[in-house]
Amino acid sequence: MWWFPRTIPPAGAPIDYEELNEDFLQAVALMEGNLGEHNWSQNAMTLRSQVAPGAVFQVFRHGANVNVDPTLEVGTGVPGAAPANSFLASNNGVWEVVTSLTNSSIDTGNSRLWIISSFQQQQQGMTSLRGLAHAIRVDGQLIPESLTGTWELTNDKDGGALKTSQDTATIAENGGAYCYRVDAVVPVPPGRHTVDIVVRMFFPPGGGIPASATAFYEIFNRELTVIVMDPTDTDVSGTGVSFTPLAEGDTINAASLNTPFAAIRNEINDLDYTAVKHRSLWQEHLPTMIVASGSTAVADGEPAPLHNYSNAYVDYNVTAGWVVVSQGGTDLAVTFASSVDFTDTTIRGILVLVNLRLYNVDNTGAGGVGQAFYSVFAIQYHTTDGTWRAVSRSERYANAETQGGVQRFVERDVALHTFLIASDIAGNQIVDAVRCVVSVANRTGLVGSIQRTQLAGCNITAVAIQGS
Amino acid sequence: MPDITLPFTFADAATSSGAQVARNFYDPAVAPDSFEVLDGWLTNANRQAGWTIRSPLIRPGGMADGRMVGLTANADYTSLTFPDVVTDNGAYVVIPGASQTFVLPWTPTIVMAAWHVVTTTTQSDFAAVSTRLAVFIDSTRIASSTRVTPAAGFPHNLFRDRIYSGHWSSRQAGAPSMTRGPHTLSVRIFIPGNTTTPQMTRCRTRHMSVLWWR
C-alpha cells in the first residue's frame, strides 16, 4: 500500500489535531502489518544474513550415510553378494520402498519439492530379463513421469522396467550393473508429506517369480535429496507500534507535534517483524540464497571427441586410482568464484549433478572380452587447504557389454548426484571446487588385458545454497 | 535508504508552519527523510535488529520456483522420416513430454533443468548408425548433451534399453541468456535415415523439470 498524507496543511492555516491524527494513523496503520511489496525498495536486503536460513530452501537428505562396497577390485567375487547396507529388491512384483530413501515427515507450506535420488543397481542371476523399475512416490502416489521404464504394459513386449543388458548368455555373471538418477518437481499443499523412492520388478509375459536366493536386484550406494522451495516456518513476535494520537482538548504546542512525529519516525527506523505484510517480499527485495555456483561441460560433437582412461580402480573408498575426467584441457570440475565456508551454519550444502556419456568400456589388450570391466565414477571436493577428498557414497559404476561373445559399445548416460553438507567436509571446511573422477576396474584381472573407459560429452553443475 | 531524520523539529514559542508539518509527513525528495520513505524507500536499515526475513513474509515462487512436465505414453520414431545424415540441428525432432516452454517471471541467478527419457532402439543388423538424443535450450544445442541409444540387435526384444537422466544449468558456458520471459527447453531425437533396415526408436516414460532460483 502506498502512503500519502490525507491532508497537507497549507501555509498559514491553523493546525487541526484531527487532520494530524489522520496522517499519523495512516502511517501507523501501514506499520501494523501492512508494509507490502510497494513499501520496500528494490534490493532492500542485500545480505544473505538478513534472511533466515530456512526462509527460501529447506533440504532433506537421506541415504547419505549408506556405504556399500561393491568389491570391484581385482580378484574379488561377483559384485553384489549381499554386501553390508545393500537393499535387496523383492522378486514378487510389488512396489516397495528402498531402505534409507524415504522421509515421512516433510512439513511444507504451499511448496514445490525438487526430489532427486541417485543409486547404484546391481543384479545377479537374472537370466530371464526381468527388469527393475524405479519411481518417486509422494504421499503414497507414484509420480508416473518419474518411472524408469514404461506404463504401457500392453504395448511393450516385456513391459515395465528398463533392461539395459544385451547378452542373456553372460548376464548371469554381472550384467545390468548400472546407476540411475531420478528426479521430479512436485507441488504440494500445506501439511506433512512423505517422499519415497520405490522399486518394482516387472515380468515378461509368462515369466515366473525367480528364486530370490539366486536371482535378484540390489541397490547399493544411494542418496535422496528433497529440496523444499518456499518451506513453511513460524512467525516471530514483535512489539508492534507504540503511538498515542492527539486527543481533543490537548494543547497544541511544539511537544505535541514533535512527540508523535518522533514516535513514528522511531518506528520507521526500527521496524519489527510484525510490520511486514505476509507474502510481500520476493526477489525484487531479497538477495540470492545461492552462495556459489558453477557448471562445466566437456563438449561433444559429431563424431564425438573421445577421451580415454585406463587407470586401474584400486578399492572402494580409497584416494588412489582416480583421475579427473578431462578432455581438451578442460577438467570436469567446478571451481567456485568464492569459496563455500561450511563453518557458516547458514549454508545448507552443495548440490552436485554430473552427467557423463559413457561411450564404451572394454579391453584393448589380449585376454578376451567380458563384462567384468567396469567404469567407475565418483565426486570429489577440494578444500582451500589444498586437498581433494572423495565422497565414497557417490561411487557409481557401469559394466562392459557383450553380445554373442562380441564386445559392444556401451553408450550409456551415467548420472551422479550428491548433496554435500558440513558434516561431509573434512579439512578446513572451506570448499572451493568439486569434480568428477573416473577409474576402470578389471575385476577378474584377465591376463594380458588392458581396461579402457571411453567418454564423450559430460557436464557437472554445483550449486551451494543457504537453507535449513 | 538509511534511517530517516525528519526535516523539521518544532520549538516552543515559535510559530508553527503548516508547510513544515507537511514536509515532515511528505517530502518527495530523491532520498526522502520524511514519512514518504514508506512509499517504496524502506531498506534493511529500517529494520529492527534481531530478526530476519522468514518464509511467511516471502511470496510463494518469489525466490525459487520450478515445474515439471512429462508423458507416459510411448512415442515411436522411425528412421524413414528422417534425413540420411545430420546436416543441421533442425533435423532433430522435439520429443513431447521431454520438452517444455516456460516463462521466467523474473531474471534468476540460475536456471537448472533435469530430464529423463527412456529409449529403446530396434535394428536387426547392429549397424553403426544409432539414434541420437540432444538437448536444446531456446533452440541452441547444449554442448555435452548428445546421447546415443544403441540398437538392440533383436527387434522387439528391446533388451538394450537406455535412460538419459540429464541435467543442465544456465551457468554452463555457451548457455543462452536466461532473462525474464518465455524460453524453451527440449530433448530432441534424430535417427539416421540411411539404414538398410528401417530403425525404430521407442521413447517411453519421460519428463522435463525446470527450476529457476533467485
Number of E strands of chain A: 22
Helix and strand element order of chain A = HEEEEEHEEEHEEEEEEEEEEEEEE
What value does the average pLDDT of chain A take? 88
Q: Looking at the structure, what is the overall shape of chain A?
A: elongated
Number of strands of chain B: 11
Silhouette of chain B: rod-shaped
Q: How would a crystallographer describe the biggest sheet of chain A?
A: 8 strands, antiparallel
Walk me through the structure.
The complex is a heterodimer of chains A (468) and B (214). In chain A, strand 16 (373-383) and strand 17 form a beta hairpin. The longest helix of chain A is centred in the middle third of the chain and has 16 residues, at 254-269. With 468 residues, chain A is mostly beta strands. Chain A has helices at residues 17-31, 171-174, 254-269; strands at 57-62, 87-88, 96-124, 131-138, 141-142, 178-188, 191-202, 216-231, 290-298, 307-309, 323-324, 326-327, 330-331, 333-341, 347-363, 373-383, 387-399, 401-403, 406-408, 412-420, 430-442, 451-466. Chain B starts with 17 loop residues before the first helix and ends with a strand. Chains A and B meet through helix 1, strand 3, strand 6, strand 8 and helix 3 of A and helix 1, strand 1, strand 4, strand 7 and strand 8 of B.
Question: What distinguishing features does this structure have?
Answer:
heterodimer; A: mainly beta; 8-stranded antiparallel sheet; 5-stranded antiparallel sheet; 7% helix; elongated; B: 214 residues; mainly beta; 6-stranded antiparallel sheet; 1 helix
